[in-house]
């Protein structure tokens, strides 16, 4: 359990204020019961895919992520949970540099993938995003055929030399995404004509098609009905054998169903990381307990 330390966030804000000469909003009162950079539970892993150390992210003068350190294990499924605006998506998007397109966004700290710096100037970001794929909240297929949606990535990454190889990648990816039976007779149909759940599984197939090592999922089921959600959750269980999966979810039931570990975020801090069962049955931090018992969020 963390101790109360009201001086920490106030001190940092004063320094930022002097440096930038821009008024910085004061942190909220709850911020004073989370010690900066201190996470309870088990934030580290024995076989890490990602090693993330002292990560801070700002949008202009607003700090969205505050000195977070976390490992994400190889072939682990980890859920990020926490109240709206606590920084889950911001942190997720650092893992494949999706924040690069936001001019005011600044990422500090050390972010390593398989021991190599994600933010190194030498890093090929296109290759990074093939290794660390992403599935978004709202299914976003291209306005092209089902086949072309899945074939697009392998084509631009030169993964297939012949049409037969491309056909094989498309079929395998659709099979892994649990969509082959529904899609095989309509591969030339436009993808946007599919149901929402089918479109989301198509987006998963599209991510799988470039042979990623990691799949980031930002509230992948929030636009889906319970049946489509159940299909995607089954898929996550199947995919966890081959990929590292990081999922942001507002559904504590979903986090409990799909993940090995759960990370609880609060006001840009990483408060607690533990085995999922532990987080939901005997959380170590008072803020985690308040959240899972529905006292806020
Ligand atoms: N593009 C942006 N420009 C400026 N501020 C941003 C931007 N994106 C996010 N933020 C701010 O960063 C903070 C964290 O937002 P983020 O979306 O990461 O939280 P979240 O936990 O994923 O929220 P939600 O659960 O509502 O999706 C919020 O205060 C948000 O307003």
Automatic annotation (TrEMBL):
<dbReference type="InterPro" id="IPR003593">
    <property type="entry name" value="AAA+_ATPase"/>
</dbReference>
<dbReference type="GO" id="GO:0035435">
    <property type="term" value="P:phosphate ion transmembrane transport"/>
</dbReference>
<dbReference type="GO" id="GO:0005524">
    <property type="term" value="F:ATP binding"/>
</dbReference>
<dbReference type="GO" id="GO:0016020">
    <property type="term" value="C:membrane"/>
</dbReference>
<keyword id="KW-0067">ATP-binding</keyword>
<dbReference type="Pfam" id="PF00005">
    <property type="entry name" value="ABC_tran"/>
</dbReference>
<keyword id="KW-0547">Nucleotide-binding</keyword>
<keyword id="KW-0813">Transport</keyword>
<dbReference type="GO" id="GO:0005315">
    <property type="term" value="F:phosphate transmembrane transporter activity"/>
</dbReference>
<keyword id="KW-0592">Phosphate transport</keyword>
<dbReference type="InterPro" id="IPR017871">
    <property type="entry name" value="ABC_transporter-like_CS"/>
</dbReference>
<dbReference type="InterPro" id="IPR003439">
    <property type="entry name" value="ABC_transporter-like_ATP-bd"/>
</dbReference>
<dbReference type="InterPro" id="IPR005670">
    <property type="entry name" value="PstB-like"/>
</dbReference>
<dbReference type="GO" id="GO:0016887">
    <property type="term" value="F:ATP hydrolysis activity"/>
</dbReference>
<protein>
    <submittedName>
        <fullName>Phosphate ABC transporter ATP-binding protein</fullName>
    </submittedName>
</protein>
<dbReference type="InterPro" id="IPR027417">
    <property type="entry name" value="P-loop_NTPase"/>
</dbReference>
<feature type="domain" description="ABC transporter">
    <location>
        <begin position="50"/>
        <end position="292"/>
    </location>
</feature>
